[in-house]
Amino acid sequence: MEKIIIAMSGGVDSSVAAALLREKGYEVIGVTMKIWGGEALPGDGTRHSCYGPGEEEDVEDACKVAQILGIPFYTFDLKQEYKVEVLDYFCYEYLLGRTPNPCLRCNHKVKFDALLKKALNSGIEFDYFATGHYARVEYDESRHRYLLRKARDLRKDQSYFLSSLSQEQLGRSIFPLGNYTKEEVRKVAQTFGLASKISQRARILSPEVIPPLWRQQHSRDQYWIDKGTFSESTREFHFIPLASAKG
Predict the structure, then answer these.
(1) Global pTM?
(2) How many Å is the maximal CA-CA distance in the chain?
(3) pLDDT score, position 95
(4) pLDDT tens readout for residues 155-184
(5) Does any domain span residue 235?
(6) Pairing mode, strands 173-174 and 145-150
């Protein structure tokens, strides 16, 4: 029986992916990264994101799902790896005037690399690594290469965020949700009795995290020029979503 470890976030996608793999007869092991550094945030700090104060609750949700599915579950501390590979990179790119992509970087350097090394070093043996991403991977016999394909549900396709994965990483990766739509995934969650145990997670770097993160990483003051007027009304690093940015 082939053994698969799956990254579980506590959300519906990774939970359903784990359930589908178990149903197909694989030996499934759930793993979760602990990456939150504990920065003090403004407001109530309750927003769930891939990096934020809701991490402990997410880990508890993932553990509950693993118990329902009857699979082993492990957590691994990757705070230092995430800081070096994602947070430091994030701030460095902004200093250079470039737009960073923390999700793409995290997948390549942390989730599909450092996490697997931690699992192997802990004594966990596995054949493949799975996630709840909406994407597909195929092997092209003529070119002797693994190809990353878009998901069937183009509205949820996440292949771009996996585009930096190496051939070695793609070769050991499985994406159980690649041929499912989001609506179908929600129905599968109900079928397995998971719907009441999981909730929607925002898998992004929460905006509330950025200013305190920047203050901890750099002492340089940064200013945002708003509508052509230089403003020093606040000594924080300001951001606008890419969709609303205009050159």
Answers:
(1) 0.82
(2) 64
(3) 84
(4) 999 999 999 999 999 999 999 999 999 999
(5) no
(6) unpaired
pLDDT score at 231: 45
What is the model's pLDDT at position 237? 43
| CATH classification at residue 74 | 3.40.50.620
Give Cα separations from 183 to 14, 19, 155, 169 (angstroms). Answer: 15, 16, 11, 28
Q: Which domain holds residue 24?
A: 3-206
- How does residue 212 score in pLDDT terms, banded at 50, 70 and 90? low
Q: Would you mind telling me the total number of residues written for the chain in this entry?
A: 247
Q: Among 23, 124, 36, 114, which residue's Cα sits nearest to residue 74?
A: 124
Q: Kindly list the distances between the CA atom of residue 72 and the CA atoms of 14, 31, 65, 181, 207, in Å, as whole numbers in the listed order.
A: 15, 8, 10, 27, 33
pLDDT at 223: 46
pLDDT for the residue numbered 236? 45
How many domains is the chain partitioned into structurally? 1
- Give the pLDDT mean for 99-111: 94
Confirm whether 49 is domain-assigned: yes
Position 130 in a domain? yes
Does 212 fall in a domain? no
